[in-house]
Amino acid sequence: MNILFLSTENPYPPDGGHHLRTFNVLKILASRHKIYFVGFAQDKNEFKYIPEIKKFCETVDIYKVSETGYNKAFFMLTCKNVFSKQPLIAQRYFIPEARKRIEQILVGDSIDLVHMDMLALGLYKPILKGIPVILTNHNVESLRIYRWMEVEKKLFIKSFLFYQYLKLKDFEKRICPKFDQCIVVSGHDKTYLRNLCGKDNFVVIPNGVDIEYFKPESVEVRRNHLVWVGGMTGPYNSDAVDFFIEKIWPVIKYEVREATIDFVGGGPTQKLRNKALADENVKVLGFVSDIRPIVQRASVFVAPIRIGSGTKIKVLNAMAQAKPVVATTNAAEGIDVTQEKNILIADDPGEFAEKIVYLLNHEQIAKEIGTRARELIENKYSWDVISEDIHRTYENYKK
Question: Which domains does the chain have, with CATH numbers?
């Protein structure tokens, strides 16, 4: 088939959860079909990776969108959005140049199917007339914003998030039923969206792991050593890190004075930087191109994520390396885990800390939990296993 692949980002390099799923789905589809890629980028530096995407595609077109954060372009877009019924994320990606290019591809390249990667591209749906369209939801956007709003302390931002939540929820309800198929990453997301939309056009295809890349290695594990992985510029990971530093780390240090932790990922928060200056047992490593050796040496992988939606690929990757994971309910959401069998889950900061301390004091139990975590990934979350579900879903629309 000829597939038009619409993506909110250039997924190369595949160095984060969003990129990892998009890149792997792109590779899987390209193994059997011709791909015409149209994507977007916040940073012009991302354009240098176009040749990497071209390895899998017939054509590649990427368009610049306004960068999120404190800048003039995003501020103007946000002000304009106040008077629109569309959510900000959808308005941000609706660009005339991209629309024109999509229309050209539809006319000239006999497109059989459209893959739309994420709800934010939903405003392009009306121009995809007469062609089957599959929407991939990496998470439930309205739920993700709602959870952020719940923990946000600044009243102005909290109010803005609530306004966006209402618009996103309405957008999901209106637009998801218009797609031929909507892919979600977990049964939890399917139930939520099916109930919201009143239509059962949702299918679960979970996030996956390259189990040959992320696998256990025979290295010496550092006693009483923890690791966090994830860029901290966004609100979801930054909240998790600050929550850990403020509420969880003091309890761990009281119980296990020699405990240490590495924070891997760019954009460390101010609270984390301050803590690292004051506590030599807290290390900020910044962005690391290959996280595997650092994770493998850790006694426990921590995922204290309180907000967000979808499944957390960082958790899947750590489990694939047979690491015992201590996670919040949110961090484990959508993964078919079993408490105390292949993961430990806690939301209360004191309980979260105590579960970490328990694993540090019971190394054999920690090892057994990690081994069973690896078994779960091999059986259910390997991209090799998931690829067959992807091909089956997409080839239902083969002419």
Answer: 2-208+383-395 (3.40.50.2000), 225-381 (3.40.50.2000)
